[in-house]
Design a protein that fits this description.
homodimer; 318 residues; Phosphoribosyl-aminoimidazole Synthetase, Chain A, domain 2; 60s Ribosomal Protein L30, Chain: A; 4-stranded mixed beta sheet; 12 strands
């Protein structure tokens, strides 16, 4: 016998993630009731993952549970926010208890690791669709934004770029190392790094659609342009091998799905940025500079412009 | 040429609903940033509407925009909360600008009427799926809940029951009055009524799945049972006609989709409840009583038990 919607939510999601004292009422009523710390602003983001668009059919549900939450937490990271709560709107073609348990396990493990509690949700029948909203806090007025980049700012990225794109481009290729595949399936939201950058970065965004596309959003919102130096882009050895074998910089520049942070830092804070870079386990690498001239220029060390065949992935693009 | 995802969100949703000063950063960054009034708790709910499950294919998009938001605001009403912000995760099979404009119009009109601002969202491609999260405030500790019903409480409902069910059961029947059809397509969230009931009601829920099912949630959460007197159920004339013609009470008892509030009120507050009932334009009608004995009994005036063929609608029920 299939479970009713109500029992489905209760059973799988009533105790998911951390258990927080600021949750006055969690899963099981019409709404959740939450207490916000004094002096903080609320930071929220909602993102949807659709089967066949954002992930393959028959994707491993535990990895999917992790990734669905991770891509949302990455948005909180890009604001420098402390994560707190999540809601989950899950549309499922059928009730598969094994699938649900595995999804919940992946979701809950990542949630607990970042002190996030699942506070509510909705479970409906239909084509597989996962919408998650995350909620966090920032000190009032301190959120990192897209529109704060200034002329002369140095552009940095956390971690490495291109691994997720490589895994995506070579689906099912056993030669792709497990560590590279995990960068696509199990992205790490850079929450600790985002919070450390509050007060230092002028602007920040997470790289979901590709560096060019997402840095482009910073440039558009801030009314500036940028130059990137492609040899400075932090990449794993397999991505470097791919670039050199194919003379193609698209993996780190436009493949997306890495969920690293791209930030701009004023040059007078270079020393502070370098100290942070040494502290960040994932690294923090300078890759270019904010300039007045609109658009994003990608140059090699000898000053040649890099040609790109495609910009970041966008839904509905013609 | 199709619009890119980014411009889609910006163009249609950047200025939807009210414009609120507590929105520090709205649509267009990785997250929205929001300021909560001192002394208030945050109240949130997320709900999904799926084509073919919650609404028919080719539904009028303007009415769908209204209804998608209304069913979510109804959850805030059931908590006695003041509405403030909404996010929208919209999965669309294709970009249809006329459809989007109409959807946005229906959504925005209702949002503005309740001082709700759209603060963020995500637009993706896939089978039509609408997830909306609403956010509101309650004075700390004052939220109406499901688990507060007590022995002897009087059970009340706002408005009338069964119209939406009648419209659903007689799809395309031109004999259904427009006012009844609107009760299905354009439900009115009882926000003002819910707020007026704070401090008076012991428990509250909104009737989405049907009175028996939703009152059942109050009873389960509160560890009580209930008796309802079916002739007291507030119904429109067409619903009364249907009941008597078919000797079938299922429309007001289990059809759902009315989005009225069901609340329990202690008997010592009867006079206060009657004063409110006179104030509510939609009405507030006593229909039964909370009792110790588990389960919900539906009785006629002469003490006969009413038999029901089905309880409220639940997804995935076998």
């Amino acid at each position: 016998m299939a479970l009713s919607e109500f029992r489905l939510i209760q059973r799988f999601f009533a105790h998911t993630g951390a258990s927080r004292t600021d949750v006055k009422l969690g899963v099981g009523d019409d709404c959740a009731v939450l207490s916000l710390p004094a002096g903080k602003e609320l930071v929220v983001s909602i993102d949807t993952l659709v089967e066949g668009v954002h992930f393959f059919e028959n994707s491993d549900p535990e990895r999917l549970g992790h990734k669905s939450l991770a891509v949302n937490l990455s948005d909180l990271a890009a604001m420098g926010a402390e994560p707190a709560w999540a809601t989950l709107a899950l549309t499922l073609p059928a009730v598969d208890e094994d699938w649900l348990e595995a999804f919940c396990r992946g979701f809950s493990r990542l949630a607990a690791a970042h002190n996030v509690q699942l506070i509510g949700g909705d479970t409906t029948s239909g084509p597989l669709n996962i919408s998650i909203q995350v909620h966090g806090f920032v000190t009032a007025g301190a959120a990192l934004r897209r529109d704060g980049a200034q002329l002369g700012d140095l552009i940095y990225v956390t971690g490495r770029l291109g691994d997720a794109g490589l895994a995506l481009r070579t689906v099912g290729n056993v030669a792709v190392p497990a560590a590279v595949q995990s960068r696509l399936d199990l992205p790490t939201p850079r929450l600790q790094e985002g919070r450390a950058l509050v007060g230092l970065a002028h602007a920040a965004i997470d790289i979901s659609d590709g560096l060019i596309s997402d840095l482009g959003h910073i440039c558009d919102a801030s009314g500036v342009g940028a130059t990137l130096y492609v040899e400075k882009l932090p990449c794993s050895q397999v991505v470097r091998d791919y670039i050199h074998a194919n003379n193609d910089w698209s993996l780190p520049l436009s493949a997306g799905d890495d969920y690293e942070l791209c930030i701009t830092i004023p040059p007078e804070k270079l020393a502070e940025a370098e100290r942070l870079a040494a502290d960040f386990e994932c690294g923090l690498t300078p890759i270019g500079r904010i300039e007045a001239s609109a658009g994003i220029r990608c140059l090699t060390a000898d000053g040649q412009a890099v040609q790109l065949s495609a910009s970041g992935y966008e839904h509905f693009s013609s």
